User: Fold these one by one.
Assistant:
Number 1:
Amino acid sequence: MTGLEALEHVKTVKDELKHLECVIEELWLKLFSIKAVDYGKEPIQSGEVKDLSDQVAEFEERLEELETKRRAREAYIDAVESMIEQVRPARLKMLLHLRYINGKSWEYIADKLELSRQWLYEELRPQALEEFDKILKNGLQKFTEVYKRTIV
């Protein structure tokens, strides 16, 4: 995996995080709306009737699965941010953070760094990616383990 691929994967991971957070929120809403089974009535559908504890257990199992995925994705973003923090000089670090962590446009970053967009993209960006690549290669084994957990 190249440094650019690792950085661009942050956007995908952030999108997945947003989705997981929505699913977790929906799961909590469903959990709070569970009603106890009235065993005095005939079941409407054929099949087994699940009592309240069965339903709660299913929700807890699903919630734990989602939370595990969420933690793995947060760990990926933290790992990338940690590597960006090691980039020197500061303007290269700022470029990487604004673009790949905050998702800012090249125009916005050029404005913040008081540079032309063309110089930023053609000159400074390759320098920043080269510095990030060096840091990534130094910690590649550990980073690969974190990355693999986001694939699950």
Number 2:
Amino acid sequence: MTATHAFGRPLVPLAEVNQDKVTPGLLGFVIFAAIAFGLWMLMKNMGKQMKKIDFEEQPDVPEQPAVPRQPAAGKATAASASASAASSASAADSEAGRGA
């Protein structure tokens, strides 16, 4: 083998390359790198936006049962007055039924 003949091919073949295979090549790497860079930028921006949020959780307060308000003694409302009249009338009817 002459010096000019060895100059045309590598001294140690690094890997056998099959010419029938399709590989992504440089274009595939560039597209993948651009997507990875875009994802990294989005994650960085999301972290910044999350730090801007001012959130303080309020402590849990147990719910108190609703207690109906009773009207003041001197102020009877129309609803309570009609309810009182109805209960008096039913009591009077039941006593009249017993006495007969």
